[in-house]
């Protein structure tokens, strides 16, 4: 067994530590809100009727991740949202959510809207993928 690190005193390699773990705070008493993750893909008639582009209903062919977070008794001005490539960090006075995303996203192209009547924050993030035979745009 060989250690690959330059520093022999380290007990783990930096690749073993999940991205976003610096935000983990086990001592924070705020509760974790309910959330739902869904995937969205853009399809046209060439996909639906002819199957020309090779897209299928799997998450591998989706372009966006949509995250709906229930935030009861919260005002829009109380929400702090930080998006990184693989991490969503949401903070309110009553709630805290640190969510490791299933796919890397483009943090600069996301959008969020607060549906005040339903008390839901809806975050839409563009999935950042390498180009392949399905994802060629």
UniProtKB/TrEMBL annotation:
Lineage summary:
Eukaryota, Metazoa, Chordata, Craniata, Vertebrata
Segment Disordered: which positions?
Answer: 1-27
From start to end residue, where is composition biased (Basic and acidic residues)? Answer: 1-12
GO annotation, cellular component aspect = cytoplasm
Checking InterPro entries in the record gives: DNAAF6, PIH1D1/2/3_CS-like
Q: Which GO terms describe its molecular function?
A: dynein intermediate chain binding; protein-folding chaperone binding
Q: What is this protein called?
A: PIHD3 protein
Q: Where is the composition biased (Acidic residues)?
A: 13-26
An example GO biological process term is: flagellated sperm motility
Pfam families recorded for this chain?
A: PIH1_CS
Q: What's this protein's family per the entry?
A: Belongs to the PIH1 family.
Give all residue intervals belonging to the PIH1D1/2/3 CS-like domain: 32-127
The source's superkingdom equals Eukaryota
């Amino acid at each position: 067994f060989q250690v690959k690190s330059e520093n022999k005193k380290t007990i783990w390699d930096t690749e073993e530590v999940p991205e976003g773990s610096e935000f983990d705070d086990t001592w924070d008493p705020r509760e974790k809100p309910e959330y739902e993750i869904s995937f969205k893909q853009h399809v046209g008639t060439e996909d639906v009727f002819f199957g020309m582009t090779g897209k299928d209903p799997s998450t591998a062919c989706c372009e966006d991740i949509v995250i709906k977070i229930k935030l009861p008794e919260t005002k829009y001005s109380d929400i702090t949202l930080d998006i990184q490539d693989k991490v969503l960090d949401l903070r309110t006075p009553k709630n805290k959510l640190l969510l490791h995303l299933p796919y890397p996203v483009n943090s600069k192209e996301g959008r969020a809207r607060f549906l005040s009547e339903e008390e839901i924050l809806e975050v839409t993030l563009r999935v950042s993928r390498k180009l392949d035979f399905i994802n060629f745009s």
